[in-house]
# Entry
Amino acid sequence: MSPSWTYNRAMRRITKLGGYLVGIGAGAAAVIWLVKDRLLGPETVPVTPEDAPAFRVAPGPPPVTPETSDDDLSRVKGIGPVYRARLEQAGISTYSSLADATAAAVASAAEVSEPKAEDWVRQAGDLAAR
# Structure
């Protein structure tokens, strides 16, 4: 037997033993970490009202409520709160003003297709005639 063979064999055993010890130590540390709350109880920190977190929420837009008048554009099928607001910004707020407008102007103001705008103009004309 050569001395290098004995040295290599001893080093393999030491390395293997070191691996076992590291593995056992890591396993024990993991188990302790998992049960530490059961053994010690959860950590609590007293919080005074001055130290409590303050949440800042930007106020949103006011809720859109439909008008109670008889000339409410949301009665036109396909016009909801968003399209109604766009049309009102363009100066179209009644059935008669919608019925008198051109389909191209309504489509541009509400950012919709012209066939949809033509349908709205037709419906507004029917509702204005009532």
